[in-house]
Design a protein that fits this description.
Distance between the termini: 17 Å
CATH topology: TIM Barrel
Order of helices and strands: EHEHEHEHHEHHHEHHEHEH
Low-confidence stretches: none
Strand content: 15-25%
Shape: globular
Strand order of the largest sheet: 1-2-3-4-5-6-7-8
Oligomer: single chain
Number of helices: 12
Bound molecules: 2-phosphoglycolic acid
Structural class: alpha/beta
Radius of gyration: 17 Å
CATH class: Alpha Beta
Largest sheet: 8 strands, parallel, barrel
Number of strands: 8
CATH superfamily: Aldolase class I
CATH architecture: Alpha-Beta Barrel
């Protein structure tokens, strides 16, 4: 069954104490969110254990923002999927455009990371999205098609059944410029069609595809009303409990 998901990507924001406070505020407001909306928060690595304690017993799930592409060992500075799982993560964001752009995240690394995550029972939230110049050149379908085929088409159907996809146009992330609901729906439908072509209609129809990029309380309702938009991956607005909850209430 395709699930409604609203996930907050905190990126490199908040101290541990601030993150714990934010999580506490969310737990206090969770009853305002419709029961069929799955709330996920993705704090920085340093916050995971503390935040896990705060949200334990609530319906908020924990996600990381990245994971290592190796299982364990001499990889200074890296955090493995089994560490994430032991810290309480049910999800990890993978392939965010900021990681692709600033940290050299490649498709081949992402295939490894996704398979490692799935192997541990941690669900990847796999991000795709085109840059402004790519959209202006009319290449957005080609770019997103390649991002999907280079990574997700390497998975087995069983693996694909546990992946959440996030469409995040790079030009909309943190810019205040949101994709129109028509632009977003068009790409989401395309993504679902591509997944159906490779894995069949059943898996495609069951895959949650989230929109990300300047999603806020004022535009979430229109975006989430689209047929192929199953929720949002929220950056800036996830740092304010009231805004994040208001977005989740938009369903
Ligand atoms: P934004 O970020 O909501 O601040 O645009 C979204 C994201 O990068 O996941």
């Amino acid at each position: 069954m395709r699930r409604k998901i609203v996930a907050g990507n905190w990126k490199m924001n908040t101290t541990v104490a601030e993150g714990v406070d934010l999580a506490k505020s969310l737990v206090a407001k969770i009853k305002e969110v419709p029961s069929d909306v799955n709330l996920i928060i993705a704090p920085p690595f340093t916050h995971l254990v503390s935040v896990a304690q705060v949200i334990s017993g609530s319906k908020i799930a924990l996600s990381a923002q990245n994971c290592a592409d190796e299982i364990k060992g001499a990889y200074t500075g890296e955090v493995s999927v089994s560490m994430l799982k032991s810290a309480g993560c049910a999800y990890t964001i993978l392939g965010h455009s900021e990681r692709r752009e600033y940290y050299g995240e490649t498709s081949s690394k992402l295939v490894k990371k996704i398979k490692l995550a799935l192997n541990e029972g941690v669900m990847p939230i796999f991000c795709v999205g085109e840059k402004l110049e790519e959209r202006n050149a009319g290449k957005h379908f080609v770019i997103i098609g390649a991002q999907l085929s280079e990574v997700l088409f390497e998975l087995t159907p069983e693996e694909m059944a546990h992946v959440v996809i996030a469409y995040e146009p790079v030009w909309a992330i943190g810019t205040g410029v949101t994709a129109t609901s028509e632009q977003a729906q068009e790409i989401h439908a395309f993504i679902r069609k591509e997944i159906a072509g490779r894995f069949g209609d059943s898996i495609a129809n069951d895959t949650s595809i989230l929109y990300g990029g300047s999603c806020k309380p004022s535009n979430a309702k229109e975006l989430f009303a689209c047929k192929d938009i199953d929720g949002g991956l929220i950056g800036g607005a996830a740092l304010k409990a009231d805004d994040f909850i208001a977005i989740a209430q938009s369903y």
